[in-house]
Task: inverse folding
């Protein structure tokens, strides 16, 4: 083998034999593989073993010296074999270009490196061009273009989709050390050093500006992701704020970000809560980016306009404010303090800080002062999306009514806490109705307890089942949806008993019952099971109509203010008959019956024909089974009229005036109708106002209902 001693003549005989058998490459690869395995499995572990358990620096150096000595002694044993392997390669004529180490500068083998020669030529050429004062004229544009490309590539590599770190300082340092270091070599042979410094400084200012522009454009392209990841992206926002001040890209930032928000958010594929989340993040981000508020006001204008046209915006805002779970808006409501600023009056700048005053940016709205743009908190901005607080407060009142009516208990502590926080934002006057609503709940609990416990009223003896009521002050609560429900006579009698007791207590006040609202607690006894449920009055009325006289009546215990107790000698009903009996539309009734089908109590035996199911599938259970549950209606509709519906009802006040005007004047344009209505509203008893846009929608709806005609920009009444 190559590791044994042989004479030179014997060695060449072996080489000839290897070459004759065409084994040169095989022998070379085998030898190298054996050396690599020996190094990896024995020599390397022994080398690293020397660095275990180092006591101090001196001991560490001694171990390092020992490790290098042992490594050298081990590797040097391979030299005879490597020399013979080199002779074999020469004898066989094997080229080794692929194994040669090449120079990274000139791409030549290390023995033939021309880098020094190239650099000498490069420096000599530059010296002559500098002395002739034509280097800048000949190569300035090329050098600048090369550096620009290098800067752009470096910024992309360094800052791609990473927003949690600031990069301005590191980029500036890279420009000073790497780019300007290379540039200095170009000008280093100038005979006049002042010329060199002047040229480099001139380049530095240009390159620094290009660096800022490149970084700014990169961050602007990533701005939507920066907004979504805020506050984790605060370092990127701060970098952008600094760069925008040093570049002329504020206009580009405004246009690009506004377009991005429109493209990403303002379409039906994004639900309203996600739009609101992005809007809140944009507000926080842009306030850090531009403390003057001008950029925020300009960029988010399309978002505010879009949210104003979405019917569920206010409800989503109010829900987010008052949800129990984690919510940015709920945290904002608790965290932020009220700012006692009247945005409708002129605001004076702080005279104690006049030296820090700065003019508004050129793109600022001259109709708004700097303080008015900076004073509004996020909640006030969301509430003012509609131009006023009234719509927001109206929607909150509707949502509060939903929550109060959907709760079986009289606990209002949570709602009272939210109300107090909202009063700080919008004032007590706007939320006075909500205070009365909460007081109604408290008063209802007190009145129910008084009527039940006072022997003068004797409700317990007069009523077969307990009845309680939520007594609402009609003029302070939002309008209810108009629904009908015919209750059994025994329930009406209970209502009358409760009403008479209430009139005795309150004197000149009486009750107007809403039979379709409330909760009914019922116990349903069947052949093999007993079920306890809390359901709506409509659900309870449906199942009540399926009981019989011959069997034990279904006992029902009513715990809220709508009650259902009656019997019908009937085990099956059609949708049409039951709809007529209950005065409930057939479509609504079918949806309500679906709940009892899901509970296994009703079954549809033929088209629109339902029967009571007293036995569970598979026969009667051995033991009586009791199930406690509550009914979650498949319809999550609010019992209250929506803010939109309430507004439509308010606008109906104008209809008689509009009919009178068109009867007398034949036809009128929109603006003229609006002016006349404003005059009537200011002089008459009407307290409702509407803008031109609302009036246009109202009149267009009347046109669709064929109550008005529209042609040539004029509205007129149809001929009868």
Result:
């Amino acid at each position: 083998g190559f590791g044994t001693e042989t004479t030179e003549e014997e060695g060449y005989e072996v080489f000839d034999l290897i070459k004759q058998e065409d084994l040169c490459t095989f022998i070379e690869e085998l030898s190298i593989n054996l050396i690599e395995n020996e190094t990896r499995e024995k020599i390397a572990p022994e080398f690293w073993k020397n660095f275990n358990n180092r006591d101090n620096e001196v001991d560490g150096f001694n171990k390092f010296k020992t490790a290098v000595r042992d490594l050298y002694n081990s590797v040097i044993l391979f030299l005879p074999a490597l020399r013979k392997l080199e002779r074999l390669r020469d004898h066989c004529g094997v080229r080794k270009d692929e194994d040669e180490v090449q120079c990274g500068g000139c791409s030549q083998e290390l023995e033939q490196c021309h880098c020094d020669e190239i650099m000498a030529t490069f420096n000599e050429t530059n010296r002559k061009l500098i002395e002739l004062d034509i280097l800048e004229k000949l190569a300035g544009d090329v050098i600048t273009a090369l550096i620009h490309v290098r800067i752009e590539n470096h910024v992309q590599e360094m800052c791609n989709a990473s927003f949690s770190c600031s990069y301005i300082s590191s980029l500036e340092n890279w420009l000073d050390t790497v780019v300007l270091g290379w540039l200095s070599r170009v000008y280093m042979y100038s005979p006049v050093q002042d010329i060199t410094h002047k040229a480099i400084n001139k380049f530095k200012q240009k390159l620094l500006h290009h660096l800022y522009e490149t970084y700014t454009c990169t961050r602007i392209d990533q701005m939507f992701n920066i907004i979504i990841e805020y506050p984790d992206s605060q370092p990127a926002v701060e970098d952008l704020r600094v760069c925008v001040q040093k570049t002329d890209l504020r206009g580009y930032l405004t246009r690009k970000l506004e377009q991005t928000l429109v493209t990403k958010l303002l379409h039906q594929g994004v639900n309203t809560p996600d739009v609101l989340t992005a809007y809140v993040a944009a507000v926080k981000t842009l306030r850090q980016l531009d403390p003057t508020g001008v950029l925020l006001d300009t960029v988010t204008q399309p978002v505010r306009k879009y949210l104003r046209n979405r019917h569920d915006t206010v409800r989503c805002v109010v829900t987010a404010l008052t949800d129990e779970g984690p919510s940015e808006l709920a945290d904002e409501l608790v965290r932020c303090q009220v700012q006692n600023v009247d945005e409708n009056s002129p605001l004076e700048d702080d005279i104690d800080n006049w030296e820090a005053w700065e003019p508004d940016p050129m793109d600022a709205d001259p109709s708004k002062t700097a303080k008015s743009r900076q004073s509004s908190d996020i909640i006030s901005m969301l509430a003012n999306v509609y131009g006023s607080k009234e719509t927001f407060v109206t929607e909150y009142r509707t949502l509060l009514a939903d929550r109060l009516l959907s709760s079986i208990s009289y606990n209002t502590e949570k709602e009272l806490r939210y109300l107090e926080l909202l009063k700080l934002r919008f004032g007590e006057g706007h939320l006075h109705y909500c205070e009365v609503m909460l007081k109604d709940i408290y008063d209802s609990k007190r009145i129910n307890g008084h009527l039940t416990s006072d022997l003068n009223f004797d409700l317990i003896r007069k009523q077969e089942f307990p009845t309680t009521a939520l007594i609402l002050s009609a003029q302070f609560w939002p309008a209810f949806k108009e629904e009908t429900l015919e209750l059994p006579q025994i329930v009406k009698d209970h209502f009358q008993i409760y009403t008479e007791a209430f009139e005795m207590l309150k004197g000149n006040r009486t009750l107007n019952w809403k039979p379709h609202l409330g909760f009914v607690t019922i116990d349903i006894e069947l052949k093999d099971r007993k079920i306890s449920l809390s359901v709506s009055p409509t659900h309870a009325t449906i199942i009540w109509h399926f009981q019989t006289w011959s069997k034990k009546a279904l006992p029902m215990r009513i715990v809220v203010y709508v009650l259902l107790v009656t019997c019908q000698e009937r085990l099956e009903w059609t949708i049409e008959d039951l709809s007529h009996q209950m005065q409930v539309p057939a479509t609504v009734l079918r949806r309500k019956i679906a709940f009892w089908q899901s509970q296994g109590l009703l079954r549809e035996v033929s088209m629109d024909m339902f029967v009571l199911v007293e036995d569970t599938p598979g026969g009667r259970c051995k033991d009586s089974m009791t199930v406690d549950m509550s009914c979650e209606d498949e319809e999550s509709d609010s019992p209250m009229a929506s803010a939109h519906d309430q507004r439509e009802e308010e606008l109906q006040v104008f209809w008689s005036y509009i009919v009178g005007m068109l009867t007398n004047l034949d036809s009128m344009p929109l603006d003229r109708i609006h002016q006349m209505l404003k005059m009537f509203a200011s002089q008459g008893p009407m307290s409702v106002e509407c803008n031109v846009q609302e009036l246009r929608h109202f009149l267009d709806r009347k046109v669709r209902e064929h109550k008005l005609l529209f042609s040539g920009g004029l509205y007129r009444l149809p001929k009868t």
User: Anything to note?
Assistant: The domain at 643-716 is CATH 1.10.10.10 (Arc Repressor Mutant, subunit A). The mean pLDDT is 78. Strands lie at 520-525, 529-535, 556-557, 572-574, 602-606, 609-612, 625-630, 667-669, 709-711, 714-716. Residues 51 and 64 are 7 Å apart (CA to CA).
